[in-house]
Amino acid sequence: MSSATGLAATLGRLRAVAGLTFLEAVRRKVFLIVIIVGAAIVSSAAFLPAVDPSGRLRLIEIWSVRTVTIFCSLGAIFLAGFSLPGDFEQRRIYTLVTKPVHKGTLFLGKFLGFVLLMAVFLLIMGTLTLVYLRIIAAATKDFPEARALPRYVPQGLSGPFEDRERGGRGARSDQKQEVEWIFEGLPPGRFPERVPVTAKLDLRRLPGMEFRLEANVAITAVNPKTLEKHEQVVRFQTNRFTTFEIPGAAISDDGRLGIRMRPAEPDLQVAAWPDGLTISGLPVNFELNFMKGMGLILLQSTLVLLATLAASTFVSAPVSILLGICLFLTGSSWSFVTESLEDVDRQLRDQERRERQGAPARGPDEVPPWLLRASGALSRGILKAVPDFDKYNFGEWLLTDTAVSGRDAGRALAAFAPRGAVLLLLGLLLISIRDFAT
Amino acid sequence: MDTVIEARGLTKVYKDFWGRPRLKALDGLNLEVRPGEIFGFIGPNGSGKTTTMKLLLGLLFPTSGTARVLGRAPTDVAAKARIGFLPEESYLYRFLNADETLDFYARLFHIDRATRRKRIDELIARFGMEHARKRQIREYSKGMVRRITFAQALVNDPEVVFLDEPTSGLDPISTRDMKDLILDLKARGKTVFLSSHLLADVQAICDRIGIIHEGKLKEYGAVRDILVRRDHVALTFRNLGDETRRKLVDIAKQEGAELISADNTLETLEDVFLRTVQGAKKPPS
Q1: A402, A408, A413, A416: CA torsion to nearest 10
Q2: Cystine design at B192: which of A151, B38, B115, B131 (Cβ 3.0–4.6 Å)?
Q3: What ipTM did this prediction achieve?
Q4: Quick one: pLDDT at residue B278?
């Protein structure tokens, strides 16, 4: 095998191109400027109004994570958008592809260089934020401890009635019967004496099932092994997270737990969903968890980077940058679009119902059904192609003091991997079939 | 190997966005370049020189026909490992210095660190860049950039070197230095494919040439075979007296020859210029 081919040679070239890409950003001061501006924005959180030390902690955390996310993603879009088109337009590509370098190696090398750049950026910004938090904590009286609690989700939910709202996976109970969340495989010794529980319910008034704003709910935590029960009544608001505690003794030594709920008032039903309740374990290392969160941001930025870089193999820098920004905005507004789609479906169902009843299908100010269906189909297609960036939105974890679990990381990776692979292959294909006429 | 570079029926038609033919830049080019020769490729602007070179380097895909370099397709990585390319303009990373530039390109050839260092030192010295090796390329003069671009083309000690307008934008001293370098490459057994507008340079250093016009090869062969006028003879003497010259002219006329000129020979302007500034033969720093 000649020195020109073979895995070692290809890896060597990948390293050379990736190293050059990294060095270019450093030498052009892009990296330094982004870090200085990012650090300045993060530190400006101290000057933002905050009602109390706890609010200030949240502000710093969220301000930092949002800044880092936006800088990382936009940095990736602009650096990747200008990189390959810059090589094409400035014709540096001539001195690259006339060397024993596959065009695909060039694409991969650039990609790895930018990922390295983003990883270093996130590491630096993450460290700066953590140091900054420590300084603020030391200088502020009653500043709360930054915490990361592992959250555990139930394996199942059962109840006497099915609830068709919110994906049709819910269950409802009345005052006589209960809904029950079942936990299995909880790690022993990882829970405090009083275990925090966060739950969200819908409260429905009988017989018409209209929403009720507030009501008392009877809660029973059951140890499935000893059948020991711990009962309490908690005030809930409809569709709002409520936190209460159950005794750690309710968790059996083989890691099982049951939490049952029913309305504590007459003429009421409670509606619940499988992911509407979590329990928290003992806190994990906050710094380590913060870096895990940076990892989630890296995944999101890598996806945006790949889309921009793949586009830049075939279209100009402005167009590829625009595509990257579109992906970023669509992924960031995924939940909003999903909720809008539910509204569209509801409107379609209403129109069909009215039609069946012989009434006019739509009112004068309603959109025609064909347009609703077309826009719904288009939006669904886009939502399939673009992942929900909430999976990478570390700020959501911070707001609820939640640790990034293996399951969270797995979901983020599962959303990333197929899309990343498709974009990577697309970029490799596009660059391999293009030539350099100009 | 009898042929280092070979083109057979090489045709390139540029198309527009919709795939419709826009321009036939090259039309059935046949060409062979032999080992160890300097082949000059000349033609006016838009004649197809650059397109030919891009096809031979794998920067473009041909519409039809084939190109082979060192017996392989131009896009073959194994072939690229044995060639060097000096583009018409110097397309380098301006934030790198000379050392870093050469090291980056050498790493693309998977050359080990010790060999890289040795070869980079040699090239830096050969191109007279020792004083500027740690300065970023954006601070270089045009001549310095040109030299470092030439150096990157030689970083793999290539068997075949493609040179596109190597003396473009250079002063006479640097131009002469470039020509010496090209002749030095030939002396070391390298094959050179030289594309240039400067006919005098091509005539001075090339073994064979091809003249391309409107995408077609119009002339092709050894420089002397193409340039020689078989019905014209020039004799050059030193210390020839006027009387002797008259006698020679008379003899020639008696033999039926027509006298076209009987003048003193001229030096080339380049020779005079270089002699005048001989002290600065080495490029100034």
Answers
A1: -70
A2: B38
A3: 0.82
A4: 56
Nearest alpha-carbon partner for A250 in A227, A233, A266: A227
Query: E strands along A26-184, which residues?
Result: 151-152, 156-158, 161-163, 170-173, 179-183
* Helix and strand numbers, DSSP H then E, in chain B: 10, 9
Q: Which residues pair with A13 in a beta bridge?
A: none
**Beta bridge partners of residue A152, listed in sequence order:** A279
Residues in B closer than 8 angstroms to A94, CB to CB, are: 57, 59, 85, 87, 91
What are the tokens at A427? 């970029």
A436 contacts on B by Cβ (under 8 Å): 54, 59-60
Residues A285 and A331: their CA atoms lie apart, in Å, by: 29
A287 in Cβ contact with A123 (< 8 Å) = no
Q: Do A294 and A126 meet the contact criterion of CB atoms below 8 Å apart?
A: yes
Encoded tokens for A83: 């990189």
Angle at B127 between CA B123 and CA B131, to 5 degrees: 95
Cβ atoms of residues B105 and B123 within 8 Å: no
Least CB–CB distance from B57: residue in A2, A98, A437: A98
Task: Say if pTM beats, i.e. exceeds, 0.90.
Answer: no
Could B78 and A24 be called an inter-chain contact, meaning their C-beta atoms sit closer than 8 Å?
no
- The answer to whether the beta carbons of residues A418 and A329 sit under 8 Å apart is no
Nearest CA in chain B to A102: B77
Between CA A294 and CA A288 the distance in angstroms is: 10
Q: Residue A303 pLDDT more than 60?
A: yes
Residue A51 phi/psi, 5° resolution? -70, -40
Cβ–Cβ below 8 Å for A101 and B152: no
The distance of A23 to chain B (nearest Cα, Å) reads 9
Cβ separation of B80 and A15 shorter than 8 Å?
A: no
Best B5, B97, B110, B135 residue to mutate vs chain A (most A CBs within 10 Å): B110
Taking contacts as CB-CB distances below 8 angstroms, the residues of chain B near A104 are none
| pLDDT average, residue stretch A125-136 | 88
For residue range A321-352, what is the model confidence (pLDDT) as tens digits?
Answer: 999 999 999 999 998 888 888 888 888 888 88
**In degrees rounded to 5, what are phi and psi of residue A257?**
-160, 145
In this structure, what are the phi and psi dihedrals at residue B27, rounded to the nearest 5 degrees? Answer: -130, 95
Which residue in the set A92, A97, A100 is minimally distant from B109, CB to CB? Answer: A100
Environment class of residue A346 by beta-carbon count within 10 Å: exposed (0-12), middle (13-18) or buried (19+)? Answer: exposed
User: Residue A414: which pLDDT band, with cuts at 50, 70 and 90?
Assistant: very high
